[in-house]
Amino acid sequence: MEETEFNLDQIDIKEFNSVIIGSGAAGLNCALHLVGEGINPTEIAIITEQLGGGTSFNTGSDKQTYYKMSLTGNQMDSPFEMAKDLCAGGAMHGDIALIEATNSIREFFHLVQLGVPFPHDQFGGFVGYKTDNDPRQRATSIGPFTSQEMGKCLLKEVQKEKIAIFDKHYALNILFDNTKKRSEAIGVVCIKTDELISEKNMGNIINSIKIFKARNIIIATGGPAALYKHSVYPKSQKGSLGLAITAGCKLQNLTESQFGLASIKFRWNVSGSYQQVIPRYISVDKNGKETEFLMKYFPSFQQLSKAIFLKGYQWPFNAERIEDFGSSLIDLAVYNETEILDNDVYLDFTKNSLNYEEELLDPIVKRYLSNSNALARNPLERLKKLNAQAVEIYKKNGIDISKELLQIAVCNQHLNGGISADMWWETNIKHLFAIGEANGSHGVHRPGGAALNSGQVGGLRVAQKIGHTYAKLEPLNRYRFLQIIAPNLSSIFNIIKFALFKKAIMNIDQMTPAQFWEHIQDRMSKFGGIIRPSKDFFEEGKEIIKQIYNLKIILILNNNKEIIEYLRIRDALLTQQYILKSILNYHESNGKSRGSYLILRDALNESLNERYIIPPGELKEFKFIKSDIILEEKIQTIQSHAGIITFEWEKVRDIPNEFGWFENVWKDFSDGKIFN
Fold first, then answer.
1. Which of 35, 205, 391, 434 is an S-S bond match for 219, by CB 3.0 to 4.6 Å?
2. Which residues touch 200 (CB under 8 Å, ≥6 apart)?
3. Same structural domain for residues 291 and 393?
4. What's this model's pTM, rounded to 2 decimal places?
5. Whole-angstrom distance, CA of residue 119 vs CA of residue 274
């Protein structure tokens, strides 16, 4: 197939100091802080595939949490204490934890000033409560839509500052200059999605290309939402870690995700109040037979009621909460019904479980419901008393839980790993930053709501670094810039041309985009969910490599508009390859069950005191490995060097506990040394 000819003079090139890819709460906050650090609003651009389409604008729970240092009452707290709790799950750098803790109050009050109505008492104290993995009362909330309100307030201020937002722009490549000792990011290649036509036409593809020349690029694209069949992420959120992978970024902790129970027709966590009112769990098989399946795994209704209740604030699936009839045994039972037995699972709020009797409730449950004045004849009445908003959320989204069952599954909710970055959220590529969920700062597990704080703090740190270090650098010579982008564009156009205009190829199974997504998601459910078997893993890895190499042959494209699906699938395959390779390396490193997944291997390594934990009943098929090995003191990193993917296990950096003499810190701050 002939090379695609194009004229660089016809390509739309815009130049900015800083370009943010992504328009969620982290990206918007970063833009505002850049202005605060002295960058002119006209020198800042936000590129987004769909304004308002990201996770922060579309998700929530019965009481969505924002996590910050304590601000009320007589409890003792400090940044150091909060950093210890952020690190408690393991595989998190102490200096990053301290930064997130120290700046949590600053960023919280930034949101308050922007108009996010966090509740405070008559003394002005911002009240708190305990969330999962939180030993104090650092959590706060405005109800189900905390992140959505954050997004709205941040966007309003961005628009007030007249910061340019380029909507309907799909970022497909980061441009970088690798002639320097350390590669430097210099721009972003995008496709203007609403300019693509419903025909096959390379001229239209070329005209839709938009290039942003920038001294600083911030990846704020969120998590890899499209990888999983069952997901809490909004359908509009896709994720784009492939951008970082193809740019040569180091990534870390890709083994660590968060899973939990959520409704699937309307994607919403069924945490908090939804569990505390003790709903009825049922499964329905293909013949319509209904079963209350949980009692098969619990010796008494009292223990079951406690587990369901605790599932409310122990929402994430946790390998440590299977034994002794813990709350995560419920997730495992739901997984077995849906993924193994192929049944549908529902929460029923219209009637009590067959075993329900108020006097048989666990004392913890009964006391909580009684103190909340929420004891009533059925789960729906209890929920209305405890949290009426929780009922209305579903009603507004077409599901009346007073009349119908609520279908649920174990869903992917958050990637705790991601792009590796330093204490200013800058990657191994100079001038390229990663914030929000795209940044892999979290460890094995984290307190609920810590991700919202992390995204805000990351935006602040990037803006500080740029404002004090990268604000006034000389722009890259245009001629040199064109020299760099010419081969990049040529490669992109040739791949797209082949994908669009290829002829049928013998002995190659081709798929539509929809079929390919199903294939990707099934693979992720099998190897990257809460169950992580080692069997067949290596062979599946070879299949991914083959699909990446042959994608332009395999995928059936009918017109230019479908090129975006091709690019998304390419990104998803690269991300999946990195995640599954990381999980395979974890198996090979004798990793044990931890965080939000169970490790299944056919043989035990007795030298590591590996042992099987066998869940009750038919869940015994999920006998999982625990051991004495401690990998939580290290962070697994993955990076491609000249096409070869390599792993390192870095020692976790301790939390700094020497905080400097005032006069010395003052001088270093005044001289700008702290930003180097």
1. 434
2. 500, 501, 557, 558, 559, 560
3. yes
4. 0.95
5. 22
Position 319 in a domain: yes
Please state, in angstroms and rounded to a whole number, the distance separating the CA atoms of residues 612 and 607: 14
Note down the domain range covering 625: 502-638
Residue 508 and residue 632 in one domain: yes
- Report yes or no: 412 and 597 within 8 Å, Cβ to Cβ: no
Q: Would 103 be classed as within a structural domain?
A: no
User: Tens digit of pLDDT for each residue in 402-448?
Assistant: 999 999 999 999 999 999 999 999 999 999 999 999 999 999 999 99
Tell me, what DSSP letter sits at residue 51?
T
First to last CA, the chain: 49
CATH number for position 558: 1.20.58.100
- pLDDT tens per residue across span 572-593: 999 999 999 999 999 999 999 9
And the tokens for 522? 């099934």
In-domain check, residue 569 = yes
Distance of alpha carbon 165 from alpha carbon 163, whole angstroms: 6
The amino acid occupying position 224 is: P
> Are residues 396 and 514 part of one domain?
no
Structure tokens at 272: 């908090």
pLDDT at 59: 84
Q: Is 617 helix (H, G, I), strand (E, B) or coil?
A: helix
CA 423 to chain CA centroid, nearest Å: 20
| Total number of residues shown for the chain | 676
Are residues 466 and 33 in contact, defined by beta-carbon separation less than 8 angstroms?
no
DSSP string across 253-289? -TT-EEEEEEETTTTEE--THHHHT-PEEEEE-TT--
Residue 78 lies in a domain: no
Count of domains forming the chain: 2
Mean of per-residue pLDDT scores for the chain:
94
Asked if 118 and 127 touch (Cβ cutoff 8 Å), the reply is no
d(CA 250, CA 607): 32
Which one-letter DSSP state was computed for residue 426? B
Asked whether residue 409 falls in the same domain as residue 269, the answer is yes
Which amino acid, one-letter code, is at 310?
L
HSE value, Cβ hemisphere, 13 Å, CA-based, for 576: 31
Using a 10 angstrom Cβ sphere, with 0-12 exposed, 13-18 middle and 19 or more buried, the burial of residue 501 is exposed
Q: How large a percentage of the chain has pLDDT more than 70?
A: 99
Q: Which residues pair with 599 in a beta bridge?
A: 532
* 506 pLDDT tier (thresholds 50, 70, 90): low
| Cα–Cα distance measured from residue 396 to residue 385, given in angstroms and rounded to the nearest whole number | 19
Structure tokens at 271: 């945490």
Instruction: Write the pLDDT tens digit of every residue in 63-79.
Output: 889 999 998 888 889 99
**387 shares its domain with 527:** no
In degrees and rounded to multiples of 5, residue 624 shows phi and psi of -120, 160
Please check whether residues 515 and 631 belong to one and the same domain: yes
How far is the C-alpha of 657 from the C-alpha of 651, rounded, in Å? 18
Quote the CA–CA distance of 279 and 164 in Å, as a whole number: 47
Cβ neighbours around 553 below 10 Å, total: 14
Distance CA 50, CA 169 (A): 8
Check residue 130 and give its pLDDT.
86
| C-alpha to C-alpha distance for 451 and 405, rounded to whole angstroms | 31
Whether 343 and 285 have beta carbons less than 8 Å apart is answered as yes
Q: In which region does residue 362 sit, left (phi positive, over 0), alpha (psi from -120 to 50) or beta (all else)?
A: beta
Going by the DSSP 8-state scheme, the letter that residue 2 receives in this structure is P
Return the ∠ at Cα 636 (arms to 633 and 638), rounded to 5°: 165
Token pair recorded at residue 298 = 């619990």
Same-domain status, 388 and 512: no
Q: CA angle 38-66-579, nearest 5°? A: 85
